Amino acid sequence: MENVLLLAHTEADGSLAKAGLEALATALGLGGALTVGLVGAATQAAAGQIAGCGAARFLAVTGDAFGQPRYTTDAAAAEALCRAADCPIVLAAGTSRWARALPGVAYRLSGRVDTHATSLTSANGAPAVTRWFYRQRMEAVLSRTQRPWVVLLDPGCVAPWSSAGLAGGPRGYPACPTVEAVSVEPPATRTTVTGYQAPKADEQTIRPDAKVLLVAGAGWTKKQADGAVHAAEAEQLILGFLRKAQASLGGSKSVVDLTGEGEAVLHCMTHMNQVGQTGSTPRHAKGLSTCCHGEEPHVVGWRFVNQRRAINLDAGCGWARGKADVLYVADAFEVMRHVNALLG
Amino acid sequence: MSTPFQIVVCGSFVPDPLQTLEPVTGPAGPSLKNEMMLPAVLDPWAGHALFEAANLARKTPGSKVWLVSLGAKAKLQQVMMTVAQKAPFELVALDGPASGFTDSFETAAALAAAIDGIAGLDRARLLLFGGWESASRGACSTMQMVAERLGITEQFQGVDQIAVSDDGSFEVLERVEGGRHQVSVCTAPPALLGWATGNLPEPRNNPQVGMANMRTVMPALQRAKAAPIGNAGLAFSGVALPKQQRQTRIVKDMPAEEIAREIVAWMGEE
User: Based on the number of CB atoms within 10 Å of its own CB, is A186 exposed (0-12), middle (13-18) or buried (19 or more)?
Assistant: First the structure.
C-alpha cells in the first residue's frame, strides 16, 4: 500500500476534533506508512493526543497565522506539509476548513482531489474512494492514477481513532512524539477572520452530534383545522422538543424558503437548517419528520438517517412509499404537544 | 461608494430534482440514462451565486456580471431561456459535458481558460462566484482550482452573505461546523466566493431582462468552444442506486397520546 499523509488542523483549544480522529482511523486502515501533518497555532498537544497511533512521522506547521481558518494560510501550510511528507495519498477530514483549502492545494501539487468520500479503502494494494453523486442519488467507487491524490472524508462515516487501551503517558497518552517542524513563511493575505455568528435564530438548533433529527415541513405554517395559522405555537412546540430531546432541527426547502417570500414563518428555521437535494445531508441515528410530504428531493437528504418516522395527515404522502419505517397519519400539533409533555 | 466589481459566475445545469435518475455505464464511463432527454435546470447553488452577483452588481453601479457555463449547447440554450429572465448577465458558453461524473480538475481548467479569454476583464476588480456544492458532481473542488489557475488566493466557501463597505473591503459570512457562520473581512478583490444558499429569494421572471440577455446569449452559444473533458486517470469500478426500500408501517386511527408514547419510547431505544 502507498504511503499516506494525514492532514489535521487543531481546534481553538489545541486538540484534534472527532472528524480528524475519524480520518486518522481511516488512514491507519489503509496499511501504508503513515505521516501525520498538523496545522495550528499550537500543535504539540494534538501530537500528544494521537501519539500512540503508530504514525511513522509527525510534521507540523505551527504559528499564530496558522490558527485562523483561512484559505491563504491553510493552503500554504498544507502544501508545505504535502511537499515535506511526499506521500502519494493525502487524507483529511472534510471539515469546512480543509474543504476550503485542500482542492487548491491539490492543484498546486498537480494532483487530484475527491471530496465527500464516505470511505477510502485499499483493495489489492490500490486505494479506492466511495462517494455519492447527484446529491446522494447514486453511489460510486472510483480510483485514480494521478498522485498525490487528496481525499476528504465526510465526518461521521467511521468510528474515530481512540487511545483507549494504549500504555499511559501524560494524561493517559503515551509520551509526546517527536514533531518535525516544517517552516512556512505566512503568505501575504488580505483576509482576516473577525469572529463567528450563530444563525439569526433565538437559539442554536443545529446539533450535528444529536441522536435525533426533527424535520419540520411547511405544513406547520399552513391553516390548521380551525382555519387559522398557528405559526407561533408551531415554533413553540418545535423548540420545546429540541430543548427536551436535545435534537437537531432540519427543514424542507419549502419551509426555509418561506422566510424570503414574506409568508408566515418559523423564526427558528433558516437556510442553514435545510435538508435535502439543495440542503444538507446530516448524519443522525434517528429522524422524525413532521408536516413534510417526504418528496424525493427532500428525502435524498435523509440518506444517512438510519431510523425514520414521520407524522403527516396524508396517508399517501412520500413517506408511505418506502421512505420511512413508520408513518403516523395524525395531526403533528397534537402529537408533538403530547410528546413534549411526556419528555417533561 | 466602492469601486465597481467585475463578477464572473461559474455554473451549469443539472437534471431537474424531480426526475428519477438512473446510472448507465458505457465505454466512456458512467453517465445518466437518457441524460440528454432529462429536463434540466440551472444548478441551485450556481443559481444562488448568479442572483447574489446580480444583486451586488445592482447595488454597485458600474459593475458587470458574466455567467460562464460548461454544458451541451442544446441544453444550455434550453436552460438559458428561463435563466436569462432572472438576472442581467453576459453568457460565456463552453460546449462540453455537464455530467456529474466529469473530473473537477479538467473542468476547472476549461472554465479558467474561458474566464482568461474574457475581453477587458479587470482582474483587480474580479469577484469569482460559483456554488460551493452542485446537484450533479458535488465535487466542492472545481471553483477552488479555477481560482488557483487565475491566481486568486482569497477564497471563501459556503458563503451566505457579502457586505461591501465604502472603502471597497467586504465582509463575508461562511458556513462552518455547528450551524455557525465564520465572519471574515477581505480588504479588496480579487476573491472567490463559493455560495451556499445566500439569503435572497429567486427573482421573478423579467421579460425585459430576458430580451436584453438573449441578444448576447444566442451569439455566445453559437461561439461556444468545444471543451472535451477527458477524465484522464479516473476510473469508476461501480455506480449503483441505493437499494434500501423500507417496509413502511402506516399507522392510522391511533390516538395522538398513544402515538406520542410510541415516539418517545422509540427515541429512548438504543
Answer: middle
